[in-house]
Write a structure and sequence with these properties.
Elements (H helix, E strand, L loop, with lengths): L2 H4 L12 H17 L6 H9 L5 H13 L2 H11 L5 H24 L6 H19 L2 H6 L5 H21 L8 H31 L4 H29 L1
Length: 242
């Protein structure tokens, strides 16, 4: 469901975004981007490079940590579930996303697929823009049709998986115990995703009860779109100057 449909063709949609709210959201995202940039912590990288063999628990921890600190993945997931109210719909979309990123993450690392991290992260930023515009009903207004959101979630899940694969390869994993360690990392990613998703759903559950939810929802999706453009610009800048 999009914002356009949710508000019955937008008849109750406020068209002006509260500047203070938007500014604060973008400022928070900007400092998050510059502070962490979804990379690999030096301590984690050093530890992984020094070990070999099967280490399931450390890789589960790293997978969970990578997901809960991966703001680009969380922004996309927040956009996906923004207007989903039924549990079976949330489960379906999250499963499609999880299946997509699991497939390409495992394939990317095991096959040592070399994908430029800046480009793949720019595409992930684009997925955030796509979902925000979808929530705002932009495609229906601009082009007169609604893209298949299930297919889009699966496809962007595949790109997110390649993003994860590029980060995992920064660990320079030992070949000894690679597959079980990789599967453990994927389990950790799913655990982290469930924890983050649960937190988002709890917060949104309270938010949706507020009388001003529709007004805030419009503002939030505009901020989400701007965050996506910010991520794209940040990654493309990194690509051209690296």
């Amino acid at each position: 469901m999009s914002f356009h449909r949710y508000t019955k063709l937008g008849s109750r949609v406020p068209r002006l975004v509260e500047p203070r709210v938007l500014f604060c959201l973008l400022l928070a995202i900007f400092f998050t981007v510059t502070a962490y940039a979804h990379g690999v912590a030096e301590g984690d990288k050093g530890y992984i490079q020094e070990i070999s063999g099967v280490h399931l628990l450390p890789f589960v921890y790293l997978g969970a940590k990578h997901m809960v600190t991966g703001y680009d993945h969380l922004l996309f997931l927040a956009g996906v579930i923004f207007f989903l109210y039924r549990s079976k719909d949330i489960a379906l979309y999250v499963s499609l996303f999880a299946f997509g990123h699991s497939v390409t993450m495992l394939y990317g690392v095991y096959a040592a697929a070399n994908v430029n991290a800046y480009i793949i992260d720019a595409i992930i930023g684009f997925s955030v823009v796509y979902k925000a515009l979808d929530n705002l009903g932009a495609y229906q207004r601009w082009f007169g049709f609604q893209p298949n959101t299930k297919i889009a979630t699966l496809v962007f899940g595949l790109f997110h998986g390649f993003g994860l694969a590029t980060k995992i390869q920064e660990y320079e994993l030992a070949s000894d115990g690679l597959l079980p360690n990789l599967l453990a990392f994927n389990v950790g990613v799913e655990i982290g995703q469930l924890l983050a998703l649960g937190t988002i759903l709890i917060v949104m559950g309270f938010w949706r009860r507020a009388d001003a939810f529709l007004k805030h929802a419009y503002t939030a999706n505009v901020a989400l779109m701007c965050a996506g453009f910010l991520l794209i610009g940040y990654q493309l800048t990194g690509f051209f100057v690296s």
